[in-house]
Write a structure and sequence with these properties.
By secondary structure, the protein is of the alpha/beta class. It has a domain at 92-107 and 236-461: Rossmann fold (3-Layer(aba) Sandwich), CATH 3.40.50. 45% of the residues lie in helices and 15% in strands. The protein has 22 helices and 15 strands. It has helices at residues 17-23, 44-48, 52-63, 69-79, 112-116, 119-129, 145-154, 173-180, 196-207, 210-218, 231-250, 270-281, 297-304, 329-336, 341-354, 361-365, 377-391, 397-413, 431-438, 447-458, 464-467, 485-493, and strands spanning 5-7, 32-34, 92-95, 98-102, 135-141, 160-167, 187-193, 221-224, 260-265, 285-292, 306-308, 356-358, 370-374, 419-423, 478-481. The strands form 4 sheets. The protein has a 6-stranded mixed beta sheet, sandwiched between helices. Strands 8-5-6-7-15 form a 5-stranded parallel beta sheet, sandwiched between helices. β5, α7 (145-154) and β6 (160-167) form a beta-alpha-beta unit. α1 packs across α6 (119-129), α3 packs across α4 (69-79) and α17 packs across α19 (431-438). The mean pLDDT is 96.
Length: 495
């Protein structure tokens, strides 16, 4: 049965999956949502006997219904190959009573690889299906990880160009080095004077600029997005939650149908929304535990029903979560508003104008699947240190936020259901913060000395993603003001 997509802000025409992937953002500024969340048509027992690639097909075929079996399997085969340093793609590691779902074994050692390895293939296939002749320009804002993963995915892909904006002083040194050393004639990286929300708002404004779109069309270009607002990013993320449960079932860590909890360190809300979709597909998930850092806008939202970005923006050691406007939350708001696009549009207009909105009591009742809490900087560091001291397992700062919030949840509720924690980045990506948390004696070491020391104490090989940037040349040294973003795009495209 076909699944069609419509905007969260308008009651306009529904489009096929391939059209939604190509557009990225709807014309009215809304996000594309499926007209229904399909239910798994294979049992979890059957899925437990499948590889990651096979599970990916079984999940994605239900959402991307205008892709043929051959097209979708080809995209999956190209995405989940030797770019990943483990055959299982997303291993589960048991540590201190929880299961860490390691989502960082791809080319850029962060969870964004899970979706951004396949998005270029979905996009090119979508372009062919819709007879698109224009060159596709991927325009993306990043808080650190999406940028490099998107660059790696699209570099050298014929018929595409990619422009990434990141906050100049708001990402880790390793994250920045990964982006600015990216090769490929079709890639362009720009630091902005501002934070991630400034970059994200700037990108959204460029997307909605009708005059620019007309100029682009005349020159044979059209925009699309690699951010998590693109449904082509969200659907592949659902896969690993289904796979995680199937793997626990295969290893007899859970009984068939046993309910598990899922903890996700959350910034833009896409990753935890994917877990929510997996639950609605039939995966036995109890609580969706939303973990925030000191930028605790989501924690406050779940506690009060008011989303308010009018607060100080904090730079933390978990920079990929340093976000005050969680774009993907809009998809959940639309759903709890009864799929009422007009109601959702009013709330988003309020967010844009006043910087906040408040949901009704009836809408808040529908958030019972979720639990929100946050970890301070000190708590995040303590969590890294304690886990390492207790069992020798080293996690990054974002995963530590999740682990800390999980501990708070258990203490608060007494709920000891088996739990999967989304481990969203390799500790090697945030080496200084991780090593500093373990012992201050590492403070004096250089970035790559710390890499080698981490490898030694964690007994883990240094990932290729780190080795290749040790001596890589800087390719992109562009920096601009937020107000100059549109002109920077035009200059790169020569329009």
């Amino acid at each position: 049965m076909e699944v069609l997509y419509s905007s969260t802000r308008g009651n306009g025409a529904r489009v096929k999956a391939s059209e939604a992937i190509l557009k990225g953002l709807a014309d009215d500024g809304g996000l594309f949502v499926p007209d229904r969340i399909p239910v798994l048509d294979r049992s979890l027992k059957e899925l437990s006997e499948m590889s990651y690639q096979e599970v990916a097909y079984e999940v994605m075929k239900l959402f991307l219904t205008d892709f043929t079996e051959e097209e979708l399997k080809n995209c999956i085969k190209r995405a989940y190959d030797e770019k990943f340093d483990t055959e299982v793609i997303a291993p589960l590691v048991e540590a201190k009573g929880a299961y860490y779902l390691e989502l960082f074994h791809g080319a850029t050692i962060a969870f964004k690889d899970m979706a951004l390895s396949i998005l270029p293939h979905l996009m090119i296939t979508s372009a062919r299906k819709n007879q698109i002749q224009n060159e596709i320009v991927i325009l993306t804002a990043t808080s650190g990880d999406t940028g490099k993963a998107a660059l790696a995915g699209f570099a050298g892909v014929e018929g595409t160009r990619i422009i990434v904006f990141y906050p100049k002083n708001g990402v880790s040194p390793i994250q920045e080095k990964q982006m600015v050393t990216q090769k490929g004639d079709n890639t362009f990286v720009v630091g902005i004077h501002g934070n991630f929300d400034d970059a994200q708002t700037g990108v959204k404004n460029i997307f909605s600029d009708k005059e620019l779109a007309k100029e682009m069309e005349e020159k044979g270009f059209q925009f699309s997005s690699a951010n998590s607002i693109n449904i082509g990013r969200l659907v592949p993320q659902i896969v690993y939650y289904v796979y995680a449960y199937a793997k626990l079932l295969k290893e007899e860590k859970v009984a068939d149908g046993e309910v598990i909890n899922v903890v996700v360190p959350t910034g833009n809300f896409g990753n935890i929304l994917a877990a929510f979709y997996a639950k609605n597909m039939g995966v036995p998930v109890g609580k969706l535990i939303c973990a925030s850092n000191d930028n605790k806008v989501l924690y406050d939202f779940f506690a009060t029903g008011t989303y308010d970005r009018n607060r100080e923006f904090m730079l933390t050691t978990s920079p990929s979560m340093d976000i005050l406007i969680s774009s993907n939350l809009e998809r959940l708001i639309y759903r709890i508003a009864g799929n009422d696009a007009q109601k959702n549009a009013q709330l988003m207009s309020s967010l844009s104008g006043q910087g906040k909105y408040e949901i009704t009591a009836e809408m808040k009742e529908q958030l019972n699947d979720f639990y929100g809490n946050y970890a301070s900087e000190a708590e995040t560091a303590q969590t890294i240190q304690k886990l390492y001291e207790d069992c020798g397992y080293v996690i990054d700062t974002h995963t530590a936020v999740a682990a800390c919030v999980y501990d708070k949840y258990v203490k608060e509720t007494g709920d000891h259901a088996k739990t999967v924690i989304a481990s969203t980045a390799s500790p090697f990506k945030f080496t200084r913060s991780v090593m500093d948390a373990i012992d201050h004696k590492y403070d004096a070491m250089g970035d790559f000395e710390l890499v080698d020391e981490l490898s030694k104490i964690a007994n883990v090989t240094v990932p290729n993603a780190i080795e290749e940037i040790r001596s890589a040349d800087i390719v992109h040294d562009n920096v601009c003001e937020v107000g100059e973003m549109k002109q920077i795009v035009k200059d790169f495209l020569k329009i």
